[in-house]
Design brief:
Layout: H1 24-30, E1 39-44, H2 50-65, E2 68-72, H3 77-86, E3 94-98, H4 102-112, E4 116-120, H5 136-153, E5 156-162, E6 181-187, E7 193-200, E8 208-214, E9 217-220, H6 221-226
Parallel strand pairs: 1-5, 1-6, 2-3, 2-4, 4-5
Antiparallel strand pairs: 6-7, 7-8, 8-9
The protein binds adenosine-5'-triphosphate (ATP) and magnesium ion.
Length: 227
Amino acid sequence: MALGRPLLITNIPLRTEVIPVGIPALDELIGGGLPPGSTVLLGGEPGVGKSTLLLQIAAALAKSHGSVLYVSGEESPRQIRVRAERLNIRGARIQVLCEQSLPAVLRAADELRPTALIVDSLQTAIARPDFAFGSVAQLREVGARLVRLAREQGALCFAAVQTTKGKALSGPKSLEHLVDLVLILRYGEGGARVLEVAKNRHGPSGGTLALQMGKEGLVPLKEVQCI
Ligand SMILES: Nc1ncnc2c1ncn2[C@@H]1O[C@H](COP(=O)(O)OP(=O)(O)OP(=O)(O)O)[C@@H](O)[C@H]1O
Ligand SMILES: [Mg+2]
């Protein structure tokens, strides 16, 4: 898309297609999928399952839509491989990049042109070394550059955001207005997890999905009960 110059509204190509993530319960929750160029924040407390869900999303997208670039600023390639093995992810076109420097991440995305870029997590990405690590200013800069990349490349961008117990996105709350979709993963009763749509620009918001964390990752509770 040509950014930075005015276009007559009726001359703008009408793209109504959405990209389904490929996890049926998640697609249903967000209204069918995501328009290309969307940015998604996945917020949650430490250990709730953000990286697990992001890797499941990476695998689902890689299966049906092409290559996915999975960037981690907090885990080693081996740790990610071990999780992928546990989740039974085999033969997926997921490129893993363990890197905190955002310019390096953006260069890799420019080269690979992935369908989806996954960043785990926003707090461990460094856009400007002169800003404090994990500061709100740093988060806003990282968020803004990811949103821009997604728009320019028509890619999907997912970023994990660590939150503090009891708070929604707290510091990162100021990022919410930048992005298209905000998902919050919380602890539910009896060890279950609840995924909530806190904001959705292109579909329904406020919906929740109950999940269970097991050896094979996060599975919708309904499916668990059916087995
Ligand atoms: N083999 C397993 N079977 C069941 N649950 C597991 C297994 N391995 C890990 N888990 C669960 O996965 C959860 C951690 O998931 P994950 O690392 O995705 O969370 P996170 O939100 O990314 O955490 P962090 O804040 O450390 O980045 C823990 O609750 C852990 O109990
Ligand atoms: Mg994690």
